[in-house]
Amino acid sequence: MYLMEENISNSDIESAIKRSVLTQSFTPVIAGSALKNKGVQTLLDCVNEYLPNPSEVQNYAINAATEEKVLMSCERSAAKPAVGLAFKLEESQYGQLTYVRMYQGCFSRGSNMINSRTGEKQRVPRLVLMHSNETENVTAAYSGDIVAMVGANCASGDTFVDAKTPKNDIVSMESMYIPEPVISMAIKNVHHKDDDKFSKALARFVKEDPTFRSTFNPENKEIVISGMGELQLDIYAERIRREYECEVQLGEPTVNYRETLTEPVEFSVTYKRQSGGRGQFGEGYGEIEPLEDANADVEFVNAVTGGMITSNFIKSVEKGVREAALEGALTGHRVSGIRFILRGGRVHNVDSSDWAFSRVGYYAIKEHFVNKATVLEPWMDIEVTAPQDYSGEVIQSIIERGGKMKDLDIQQGECTVRASAPLQVMFGYSSFLRKHTSGMGTFTMEFKENKEVEPHMQEQLIANYRESKAYKNQQASGAGF
To answer: Interior CA angle at 22 toward 21 and 26, to 5°?
Structure first.
């Protein structure tokens, strides 16, 4: 029409936009500000005008048994088995509110449904239509409807199907694409009396938001939350403070350093205690040597000959070794990549015990291992993608962090930088990258290997550990009086 110089009406433009939106070849963008209530009505009008209604698109589910695609029927009736996707969760005054988009059939209040992910059967609870912060009770939800269920037990992305559906016909809707988290931070509650509220808050947010994750690091005994950006994590921390009245602190996660040997050492340990009655006695000797793989778990080798130590006491020595390896003597981090060889020892007929021989293994690590020990830190393989114009800044940022360049690939105006760097220096890099690439830079990293830390860093880690240990000992002795 434009080339033929014919008049183009608004309805022609609107029809063309809708056709393009339906084929996903055009994306309308509407400017506005929710804070100042600008453009909100225009956005709603565009949703009503341009986006497809349920009958204008084809939706498919996946058969759980055959993994084949199944076309969903948009007919608003109960002729087909009901299928609905729980796409959003939120906490309300009535409990968990689950937003469900119906793709087929009908769910009526009081009927039974099955969560296709867990197989749990439950009754369809109260159904409501949401109008901003107001609710309207309904008795049934049909294909194409978006309703909220009050009290349904599920997670975001779960599919509900009619409980009468045969097992081989149960389907699941394709879940939303959930990108991997790009940033992690350690979080802790300030007051232990708030532990329950803190746990409930994290469990709720993980359930509501699939991009938000919470994990417990048993090695460092800290909780790490992950998400799509620092702002997201800050908002959740603030919500915990405001909604649960639980004070929390955010910080960088603790790096999982390792301690290992640089060369073999011999040990000979005699554990002897006497306190009026039966004493404690155990004696053992042997070697501790490094393994080729510094990341490997501690190996224990029984090389005792001639029955010098009985089998039950040998197991006690191993128990003491593994206990000591959980907290190395240099920096308090886990010991890895060593082989503990027990050659022999002595047993007292009366005073020897499991405890005494466990202390033999324990002090062999704590007192002899430390003489030839070193500290390892995790190095990561890094891949940074950014517009070509920012390649210089990306490379410089990695070098300044002590990283090592591997490869630079430039194609179609985009550069990909591959490098390796210590994990410690990569905290906060996502924010730095967004700031210095106008928000267009992204990066991924995965564990490569553990490498020996720089001497000055090792000295600092040792000093910090000794200071922390001295403080704990002081607190413990003070509590005893």
So the answer is: 25
Contact 177, 87 (CB under 8 A): no
Residue 251 CA to residue 233 CA, distance in Å, equals: 11
pLDDT tens for 372-423 read: 889 999 898 999 999 999 999 999 999 999 999 999 999 888 999 999 999 8
Q: How many Å apart are CA 221 and CA 334, to the nearest integer?
A: 13
How many Å apart are CA 251 and CA 205, to the nearest integer?
19
Q: How many CB atoms lie within 10 A of CB 417?
A: 24
36 three-state secondary structure: coil
Element (H, E) at 480: helix 455-480
d(CA 43, CA 465): 57
Q: How far is CA 11 from CA 16, 18, 225, in A?
A: 9, 10, 49
Note whether 82 and 107 are within 8 A (CB). Answer: yes
What span, in angstroms and rounded, lies between the C-alpha atoms of 46 and 312? 77
* pLDDT number for residue 476: 65
Across the strands, what pairs with 70? 61
Within 13 Å and on the Cβ side, how many CA atoms surround 440?
12
- Which two structure tokens, joined as six digits, stand for 42? 């225009």
Give CA separation, 238 vs 21, 122, 154, 405, in Å. Answer: 38, 34, 25, 39
pLDDT above 50: residue 203: yes
Alpha-carbon distance values, 237 to 82, 198, 225, 263, 344 (Å): 38, 10, 10, 46, 55
Tell the residue number behind the tokens 């996502």, with chain if given: 430
Rounded to an integer, what distance in angstroms lies between the CA atom of residue 387 and that of residue 385? 7
Percent of the chain surpassing pLDDT 90: 52
3-state SS record for 338-403: EEEEEEEEECCCCCECHHHHHHHHHHHHHHHHHHHEEEEEEEEEEEEEEEHHHHHHHHHHHHHCCC
Distance separating the N- and C-terminal Cα atoms of the chain = 93
Which region holds residue 313: left if phi is over 0, alpha if psi is between -120 and 50, else beta? alpha
Name the pTM for this structure: 0.60
> What pLDDT band is residue 133 in, cutting at 50, 70 and 90?
confident
User: What is the per-residue pLDDT across 147-171, written as a single tens digit (0 to 9) for each?
Assistant: 999 988 888 889 999 999 998 889 9
Pairing status of strand 248-251 against strand 222-227:
unpaired
3-state percent breakdown (helix, strand, coil) of the chain, nearest 5: 30, 35, 35
